[in-house]
Design a protein that fits this description.
The complex is a heterodimer of chains A (498) and B (327). Chain A has 17 helices and 22 strands. Chain A is of the alpha/beta class and 498 residues long. Chain A folds into 2 domains: 236 residues, Rossmann fold, CATH 3.40.50.300; 238 residues, P-loop containing nucleotide triphosphate hydrolases (Rossmann fold). In chain A, the strands form 5 sheets. Chain A has a 6-stranded mixed beta sheet, with helices on both faces. A 6-stranded mixed beta sheet of chain A has the order 16-19-20-13-21-22, with helices on both faces. The mean pLDDT of chain A is 85. Chain B is globular, with a radius of gyration of 20 Å. In chain B, strands 1-2 form a two-stranded antiparallel sheet. Chain B contains 14 helices and 2 strands. With 327 residues, chain B is mainly alpha-helical. Chain B has a single domain, classed as Orthogonal Bundle (ABC transporter involved in vitamin B12 uptake, BtuC), CATH 1.10.3470. At the A-B interface, helix 3 of A face helix 9 and helix 10 of B.
Amino acid sequence: MSEPLISLCGVSKSFGGVQALAGLSLTLRRGEIHCLAGENGSGKSTLIKIIAGIYRPDSGSVLIDGETVTQLDPITAIAHGIQVIYQDFSLFPTLTVAENLALPSEIHAGRRLVRWRHVHQLARAALARLGIDIDLAANVEALSTAERQLVAIARALMSAPRLLVMDEPTTTLTGREVERLFAIVRDIQRQGIAVLFVSHKIREMFDISERITVIRNGCVVAAGAIGEFNEAALARAMTGQEITAEGYRWMPPPGAKPRLEIRGLTVPGELQGIDLRVMPGEIIGISGLLGSGRTELALALFGLRPIHQGEIRVDGRAAALRSVQQAVSAGITYVPEDRLTEGLFLTQTINRNLLAASFEALSRYFLIDFARARRASANMIAEMQITTPSGERPVMELSGGNQQRVVIGRWLMRDARVLILNGPTVGVDVGSKAGIHRRIRDLAESRGVAVLMISDDLPELVQNCNRILILHRGKIVEEVMAEATTEAILSEILKALS
Amino acid sequence: MSLSVLRRSETVIALVLLAAMLLIGLINPAFWNLANLFSLARSNVVIGIMALGVLTVMISGGIDVSFPAFAVAAMYLTVRAMVAWDWQGVAGPFVMATAIGLALGLINAAFVYGLRMIPLIVTLGTGSLVRGFLLGVVGTSQVNIDRMPKSLIAFGSTELTSLSDPAGGHFALSAMLLIYLAMALLVHFLLTHTMLGRGIYALGSDGEAARRVGFDRRLTIFVVYALAGALAGFAGLLHGAMIWLANPRDFNGLELDVIAAVVLGGASIFGGRGSVLGTMLGVFMLVMVSNSLIIMHIATTWQRVVVGFIVIIATAATSWRDRRRIA
């Protein structure tokens, strides 16, 4: 067992009466991959910021190399070899990769002038250390998210750190990018650097970490070597509740007619001859690699691919889907992947967000019936179990899980017959994830909504869908019943495609 | 390599500029007269120096609309002081005008940094205040050529080459161009070869990231607004020296022209982007267009229409560019 690098002993921190950390103790050993697990709001971010020296603990102590450090500020933290990669990467989009890599170390070296040749040398060396190849002259804004993350990692490694803290590094990555990231993290570990991997994705923790610390409400609720845990125990520790993992079993109702029928749907360059029948109450999972056409299928159904061929019927009636309005009036609704930028008016109230698509239906002679609108949104807040003191609070105050419920709730108010969800639980923590899944199943069962769930999260699909389709190059290449498959099988199928 | 040169916004602007010059030359061959080109170059100086300051502010993610007010205040105060004290200098008055602009720029910086106020609102306010105080407290009367200090007039008329045209007229390349070029080089050096300059880009690109990396936000903001003020003050007095007149109501509406030129030169209103070369090309383009409208005897009111179009088209082009890069 290697020596401790950093120890937190009984650290507490509160903000205006809210106890973010309550006497928390944690030890990170040299060169280990340690996973910090916890739901949103469990105190993970506060803990990271204490390690990074941004926050000072109210009580308790921080030990580095066995010695108490009393005044840990960002500069001493960096001097002790602590580097944090935040979720937003802290890069400069309009500057080149070379500058993004080299400028921080040039500042810390106290330089006044920029030596461009030196900047490029430093940057080249930094990328070489990770064995990656990115155009140094490209602006960071031109890179993919995964590439930006690699730049952020390469930059952090330039200051010869001993501990690399990664805050939710996999949130925006696809399955293969996650694998590449893990390979790099293991490589970093071989260089003797400890990694604190902050996550709420249970599967990842088992893939990458050696030891794990679970925090909830600012306290450590479980800690130990990864071998001492199993998935259920970890989920229980994180949420404090038992999460049932029972598959979605669906029986075709007698004499039911298909809710959604797609015949020969083709979008030039994106989709080729998609055939699909979805019955009321069915939850169909759709997966595939990025660019497989899975998102394009959703967009086509939502009227965002006006140029398409093929026939689409909703409840037996042919639907022309040349615009979003036509799709919505046919009863098709879509919850996009990036709900923050595409689906929500963040600064507006929950009520307004819920009602955004319904004002037309709620108004008479151009005037909105506000009493009816208020009732409708209050009912939806109750039905979707959105946790908020009032519908008049801005949406940005809600947690990720609750925000997702607002987007889904908005479309349910329009009497959705077909609900398309793209990455319904991306960035949502385990507890609310289970809640959202429960809501989706209820909707399918009680309202007979046909649900198409697009996701990278294979366990999510296996657990919540009755049928799973895999798309590749614009075609459905595989169709399996969820009860007859496992995520391992699906994962093999997906790997074989790449 | 050849592709990346083509993709640079400076290349695009240079090509557009060239096309515009050819077009204007076709409509009006007098455009290519050396006399016209010299006067065109001369018209770049004052706007160009101000644009260098505005460019720096815009790269940092801010905006400055107070600089015409600062410029006019620096010019008018300095000239009035020279008249009152019968002060016949050049260096001294320019130091004074620059210092007045710099001090006013520091006030902008204090509001933007200290109170975290939106730069547009701050500079709208300080600009209006300064103009109001100037007219209310210092005076509204022009200092005309007869009372204008001789030293300033002499300095403003310094020539590089002096030529005569066949008709016996006299035209010359103003030496003030050298001042403009020197300042452009200085600002270019600051922006591209100093850590402070890269910090200005970093701040405009992502302020929070700049703070985490260790760029000094306070220093950067103060330098940027102080520089814009100082350049405006200097350019203001230079303007007075070049037109032999100090009018306290001068530079009205100039902020739009200068911001238009800077945006035209490829700077982004969202910060983090822009270059001295691009800005100089943008200034040249704007000056050339208004100059040509004058040559073609088009009323000055229509010049406002043209400037308005240029602002909208240039901003549309850059925001289209920015969006495409993000997507």
